[in-house]
Specification:
The protein is α+β, with helices and mostly antiparallel strands. It has a single domain, classed as Glutaredoxin. The chain is built from ten helices and six strands. α2 packs parallel to α10, α5 (95-108) packs antiparallel against α6 (111-123) and α5 (95-108) packs across α8 (146-155). The longest helix is centred in the N-terminal third of the chain and has 18 residues, at 55-72. It is globular, with a radius of gyration of 17 Å.
């Protein structure tokens, strides 16, 4: 079994930039029973790092997002740039969306779908994805039972999850989000994903080649 470990944060612009790579990886998984993806949430905006949007933070985020758009080809919405990032009531708090992603994964293995929808809601639609109401609507659109989703959402120990992710990152000497680690026969290696920005199918072919190599060993 090959495992692609995906270390991410739902509010990380670079993770949004890498979304097409995750989409390509999912295609590989769908056609290969010997391949799986495991999610590891890092918690970029949690604890003392939770921030309300201020003019200073907006400028910092904008400069990064513009670079991400240029390098990855990902599109950021007007509602995000001109709406959410101008809203002084908006908060960057990764814990609620992480809860939602892990709850969706626990309920129906829909964590990657939830992550994708949250990224679209945040970076394109400019919605407040740190609010449960927004996350609940996304869960409903994914077909998840509202009551069950709320119960599992409330039960998630996000601190323990993010600490486990940080331990994994320290073990393999990696920093930052996103990070891709490919595990084969117990051996874990970091994948340099930046060269694949704008080349999602090449990323998929690389994963397929690694899988074929592994099956031949």
């Amino acid at each position: 079994m090959n495992t692609l470990h995906y270390i991410f944060d739902p509010l990380c612009g670079w993770c949004y930039g890498a979304a097409p790579l995750m989409g390509a990886a999912r295609q590989v998984v769908e056609h290969n029973d010997e391949f799986e993806i495991k999610l590891h949430a890092g918690g970029l905006w949690t604890g003392a790092n939770i921030k309300y949007v201020t003019p200073q933070l907006r400028q910092f985020v904008l400069s990064n997002d513009q670079r991400i758009a240029q390098m990855t080809g990902q599109t950021f919405g007007t509602a995000y740039f001109d709406g959410l990032l101008n809203d002084s009531n908006a908060v960057l708090d990764s814990e609620p969306p992480i809860r939602a992603i892990m709850a969706a994964q626990t309920l129906d293995a829909r964590g990657l779908d939830m992550l994708h929808r949250i990224q679209q809601a945040h970076f394109m639609q400019g919605l407040h994805v740190s609010r449960f109401e927004t996350l609940s609507h996304i869960a409903r659109d994914l077909g998840l039972d509202r009551s069950a989703f709320r119960t599992v959402y409330d039960s998630m120990d996000v601190h323990a999850m993010t600490q486990a992710t940080h331990t994994l990152m320290a073990m393999h000497g990696v920093q930052g989000y996103p990070t891709f680690l490919l595990e084969r026969d117990g051996d874990i290696q970091r994948i340099a994903h930046s060269p694949f920005y704008g080349r999602a199918q090449a990323f998929a072919q690389m994963l397929k080649a690694d899988g074929a190599s592994n099956q031949g060993n």
